[in-house]
Amino acid sequence: MKYLIAGLGNIGPEYAFTRHNVGFMVLDRLAAQHDFKFSFERLAFVAEWKHKGRQIYFIKPTTFMNLSGKAIRYYMDQFKIPTENLLVIVDELQLPFGTLRIKPKGSHGGHNGLKNIEELLLTTEYPRLRFGIGNNFPRGRQVDYVLKPFSNEEMPELPIFLDNAGDMVLSFCTLGIQSTMNNYNQ
Q: Which end of the chain, N or C, is less surrounded by CB atoms within 10 Å?
């Protein structure tokens, strides 16, 4: 079984610890814990790792958030990954900070990265792990909010939530989406 795990974010040090980059953070945390490394490839930083008989490919698209679908489509074709074995990790404004939800499908909900993926995959039926970043921002300031680093109050808890998200990724690859939803959705 082969899987493609795509953590969404933006490249560049100015985005490193922003809310919009939580997908990158989850994958970086998994890589550090399980000793695999990313290398710069076409359209993404890519890593591969075997876990419990599963071949897992991880990508952090270098196309910036709004064109994430380009890298995902390319690597799905490259590695011959079926849509049900794709998992997209994305920040979610509609969930409180640290809330994690995995779903087998859904709408883009206004998220430009998901919108691009939907356009290029021609479906909304692909699994996604939504990482709650909260929505504590004044009306019309959404872009500023998602491109800011996590607050000093949020930072101490962030590693716990990143670890939980990593556990959900591994569960998705070994137990499947339904069991992962049953065991982890809050």
A: C
Binding residue ranges: 15, 64, 66, 112
Domains identified in the chain, total number: 1
Q: Are the C-beta atoms of residues 33 and 87 closer than 8 Å to each other?
A: no
Range of the domain at 22: 2-184
Catalytic (active-site) positions: 20
* Rounded mean pLDDT, 112-133: 96
CATH number of the domain within which 137 lies: 3.40.50.1470
Query: Which pLDDT band, with edges at 50, 70 and 90, does 140 fall under?
Result: confident
State the residue for tokens 């890298």: 71
Could you list the residues known to form a binding site for tRNA, using ranges. 15, 64, 66, 112
The DSSP secondary structure of the chain, one letter per residue, reads -EEEEEE----SGGGTTBGGGHHHHHHHHHHHHHT---EEETTEEEEEEEETTEEEEEEEESS-GGGHHHHHHHHHHHHT--GGGEEEEEEETTS-TT-EEEES----TT-HHHHHHHHHHT-S-S-EEEEE----S-TT-HHHHHTSBPPTTTTTTHHHHHHHHHHHHHHHHHH-HHHHHHHH--
Task: Give yes or no for residue 174 having a pLDDT over 80.
Answer: yes
